[in-house]
Structure formats: C-alpha cells, structure tokens
Amino acid sequence: MRERASPRFHTGPPMASFTLHGIPVSRGISIGRAHLLTPAALDVKHYLVPEEQLEAEVRRLQDAIAEVHRGLQALWTDLPKDAPTELGAFIDVHALILSDPMISEAPLDIIRTRHYNAEWALVTQIDELSAQFDEIEDLYLRERKADIQQVAERVLKVLMGTAQLMPPRATASADDYQPQMIVVAHDISPADMLQFRDRSFIGFVTDVGGQNSHTAIVARSLDIPAAVGMSQASQLIEQDDWVIIDGDAGVVIANPSALVLDQYRERQAAQIRARKKLQKLKKTPAITRDGVPVAMLANIELPDDCPGALDSGAEGVGLFRSEFLFMGRTGHPHKIPGEDEQFEQYRKAVLAMKGRPVTIRTLDIGADKPLDPTEHNALNPALGLRAIRYCLAEPQLFLTQLRAILRASAFGKVRILIPMLAHAFEIDQSLAMIEQAKAQLREAGHKYDPAVQVGAMIEIPAAALSLPMFVKRMNFLSIGTNDLIQYTLAIDRVDYEVAHLYNPLHPAVLQLIAMTISAGQKAGIDVAVCGEMAGDTKLTRLLLGMGLREFSMHPAQLLSVKQEILTCDMAKLATQTRKILRTSEPSAISEAVEQLQSI
To answer: Which residues lie closer than 8 Å to 132 by C-beta, 6 or more apart?
Structure first.
C-alpha cells in the first residue's frame, strides 16, 4: 500500500460527521488525523514491452523482488527488542511467499510471453491467484491470499518508486492534542506496521480483518487501539479527517463534532490515568475480596518475552507457544530447530522465569500457523493434519521436541501441554512418546524432571464432552477458547464476513467451558483458560463465577484482569453465574454478564 498522491485538506465548511461499526480488536481510544493508504495496484500502468527490451524488463522485476527480500531481512534484523514476537514470524512468512515460484517466476513468464510491463505482469499473476483462492471456502487459503497480496504490494512499491514514501515524523508541540496519525487502509501487513511504529502512528482502521487476524494480533501486542472489518472505511474517510477510534466498542467516528471530540478526549485522559494506577498492582497478589487466590500467568511466544511477563507481575508462563521457534524455517529442512537449539530456548525461558512454572505447548502448527505458507495441499487445514495430529504423524520431530522440553525441566518447573486432543488413543500415544523420550534421555545420560506434569488443551467440543477420559490421564487442563469457539460455532474466526458470529457468550460455548472447569475441580486437577477470553476484563467475573482459578493471557492484559479480580466477591459471583448458565437467550446472557460487573 502507498500514500495517496494528493492529500485533501478541509478548508471549507466542516465535513459531516459519521460513525462506522466494525470489530474491536485492541482496546483504548485514539484521536488523530486520518492518513490514508491505497493499494499500489490501483495506480499500475499497463503497456506492452518491445521484444528487444523484454529481458531488461524481466531483470527490473527480479531486482525489485531482490530489493524486497533485502528489505524484509533488514526488518527482521532491526526488530526492536520490544517488538511483538509475532512480527518476526509474519516477516518470515512473507519472505517465504516471495521466494515461491508463483511470485518469483510466474510473472517473468508473463513478461516474456505477453510482453506486459513488470507491474502489469505481477498484478495479472496476483489477480489470477486471488481468483483461484476465491473459489475455495477455506480459512487457511483465504489467509494466504491476503499474505500474497501484501507481498505483491511491497514489490509494486519498489517498481513504482514509492517504497520509502512514509508520513513525516511528528514534531514537538506544546499542544496537548497535537494531531497524530491514524492509518486508514483496506488492509495493512504486520511488516508495514513496523515502519509506522517510529512515527506518530497511534491507531489503525482497516476494511477487512477479524478478531484474530494477523493485524489484530499485532495491534494487541503493540497495545495500539484498532478497529477492523470496517468494510468501506478507506473509501468513506478522507485524508486528514479527524478520526476517533473507540477500540473498546469497535467504533470509528469521522469528523466528530467539538462536543464528541471533547468527550472522547476526557475518556482518553481517564484511561491514561487508570493505566498508571494499574502499575501499582504488579506486586499485589490476585486475591478476591472474600479471600480466594487466583493464579495470573502469561502467554509467550519466545524466551525474550519473559522479562515483559515478569514486569507485568506474571506468576509464571501458562502458555509458551513453541511453534514460533519453527515457523518461517521451511523449505530448508536443516533449519528446522534441532534438539539442542530447542533445549537452549526452553532452558532460557525457564531460567528467565526465576523458579516460576513454565507451561510449554508442543508444536501447534497447521491452519493459520503453517510451517510452510507456500503449501496448499490440505482441503481444510483447520480440520486436518495439525497440532498433535501432525506431531503423531511425524514421531521423530515430536520426540526431538519432547526430549528438548524434558531436558529443560532439569532447570526449573516445566509442564508439557498437548494441543488439539480429541481421542483417547491420541492421549495414550502422546503419553507413551513422552515416556519414550524419557527413556532416550536416560540412555544418553541427560537429566530431566521425572515427575514433569502433562496437560491437555481443551479446544475441540468433543474433548469438552468427554472429559472423564482426560482427567483420568492428565495432570491439568487448559481451555483454548479461540479454537473452542471457532469449532463450536463452525465459523472462520479470521473471516471478517462471519466474524460477527464469533461469540464467546454463546450458551453452547459457556456450557463447554463450565463443564471443563467443573470436571477439573471434581478430579482435583488445575484448569486454566489461555485463550483470548482470559484477557477480556468484561468476561473475568463470569469465568471466576464458573470456578476458574487460573488465567493465562498476553502480559499487556494481566494488570487489568488482576484489578477486576481484586474487586470480586467469589461466592456472590458463583450464585449469579449458575443462573446465567441456565439461560439460553443470548440477550439475557449479555445483560446478566453486564450485571456481574457490580458484584
């Protein structure tokens, strides 16, 4: 995407105010001027290249692709220490797509055979690929379509000489309300978000995207207000319009009146003051008003996230997403992390947490987290060979990871978490392979914790409906609400056209969560929630009322949730929550959950 060539500044009468409703993905309020981005493909020139100039045109495209490769590598190398770890994985995905023949070779053939100029050839190829993807209703392939389009945008910007066209940096001003930049676009890649990070980028609005799309994940990690799935925002909002993002409600207000602007500035100032007060809770134990302790854990992707987790007051790691050590390394089998490399990363996390527990989830790849984003073999990856299914199908890879995790358990408290279990034989095979890994370590003379705990993720409805076979075999359970909601409601959680159906308060979802927590309590084993619901303060009291005593979330959400816990009366919440679980009408459930906020 690139900047519109002719910014339109309003010098006449005030523009009419209007409000857009989309999907809230990152909480908070931003107030600033709109900076519009439009797809570079809209400005592509179409012309035919003479025969004698074809190879020069081919080289022009090859040079542009090479420059984008170098740019992605530079982005990766220069990632700031506080950058979300997801960004590195997304940059890897784009680099792999750029190396795929569908981008690196097919457009060259179009230049040679059709005599198209480089830009036209690339757009033609991307349009053909997009048309093919549009015919397949599949979460994974639709996500790859967006990634491919974003990669093509980067190449087009180089070809058209607009790759470095960025908004100016903000200058110091005594004005408390100095206009800052809110990016408005049809879509924006995570890599592009990095370039805006060092400028006056305070929020973004996109036409597409869902609650758990890549851009939404990065927005939450950066703690920047955002709203996605706005449909026609990039067409309705004009350059330099005043824009308010209400990230809590998923609302965007363009050209607000002076009264509305002042109201939101007051709300924004109140939120800033509230955040400062939250910092005082870092060392405060999470105990309800009636004396019930609650464990507050962090979700991390890489060991470098541990200092941030500790700084937020985390009592341990409830979810170490180990797949981020693997992603973006395919196409080069020797680069798949080996046992020693994995062991060093796991050990680093364990030592960084200074004696606090670290729960490491085994490799959870497939669907929206492919090892190789250029492979499209599965008809429906979300329901295919992913997570534990993939690991059991690749026993050597699985054993290598298990040995690495077990070796790290010699340096602190480690728990192993198995994702996407649904069948008793999957549980039994996983436990058998853990025992096999232990035997291999004993033979090799490596130390490990022989009593390491093993848990199951409950993220498939079948698992929540067959809990007895889990509690008999496992030491703890962790509810992955993101996938549990997706599979229960049969919706694609990253497809903005159906994202409004993604509802954590659906009565079926609530029943499955409550059943899992209750089964764990009866069996005397720990149950955690590690999905997005754990970090949503609007749902904290509901989960507590169900009996949840262990929350795991992004570190940025931890203090807000802790504040909710400190003001709760667990006994009263339990009584009201039982009434909610007997309710089947969505409107009544929503109203009752709101009423919990006063208990």
So the answer is: none
CB distance 345 to 406 below 8 Å: no
Taking the CA of residue 399 as centre, how many other CA atoms within 13 Å lie in the half-sphere pointing to its CB? Answer: 14
Give the chain's end-to-end CA distance (angstroms, integer).
Answer: 48
Most confident residue range from 4-8, 79-83, 527-531: 527-531
Q: How many helices (H) and strands (E) does the chain have?
A: 23, 17
In this structure, are strands 242-246 and 251-254 parallel, antiparallel, or unpaired?
Answer: antiparallel
Q: Which helix (H) or strand (E) holds 19?
A: strand 18-21
pLDDT in tens, 453-493: 999 999 999 999 999 999 999 999 999 998 999 999 998 76
**CA–CA separation, 243 vs 238, rounded Å?**
10
For 153, 175, 185, 325, 388, the CA distances from 232, given in Å and listed in that order, are: 20, 32, 9, 37, 40
Residue 568 annotated among the catalytic residues of the structure: no
67-76, 242-251, 425-434, 511-520: segment of lowest average pLDDT = 67-76
Query: Residue 381: CB partners within 8 Å, gap ≥ 6?
Result: 138, 139, 140, 366, 367, 370
SS3 state of residue 21:
strand
* Distance from C-alpha of 350 to C-alpha of 253, rounded to nearest angstrom: 45
CA atoms within 13 A on the CB side of 348: 16
Q: How far apart are CA 538 and CA 353, in angstroms?
A: 29
- Rounded to 5°, the CA angle 236-30-78 comes to 100
**What whole-number distance in Å separates Cα of residue 94 and Cα of residue 97?**
5
Whether 214 sits among the annotated catalytic residues: the reply is yes
From the candidates 214, 306, 391, 568, which is the catalytic residue? 214
Chain-centroid distance, C-alpha 72: 20
Residue percentage of the chain with pLDDT more than 90: 55
**Cβ count near 352 (within 10 Å):** 19
Residue type, 278: L
Domains belonging to the chain, first-starting first, are 2-40+178-276 (3.50.30.10), 51-159 (1.10.274.10), 284-596 (3.20.20.60)
DSSP assignment letter at 420: S
Tokens standing for residue 151: 């990669």
The residue to which tokens 């960004």 are assigned: 87
Cα distance between residue 599 and residue 92, in whole Å = 46
Structure-token pair, residue 450: 């022989």
Helix (H) or strand (E) holding 450: none
Which of 94, 186, 391, 530 is labelled catalytic? 530
Amino acid at 357: P
Which tokens is 20 given?
A: 């857009």
Indicate the burial class of 99 (C-beta count within 10 angstroms; 0-12, 13-18, 19 or more): middle
pLDDT at 140 over 90: no
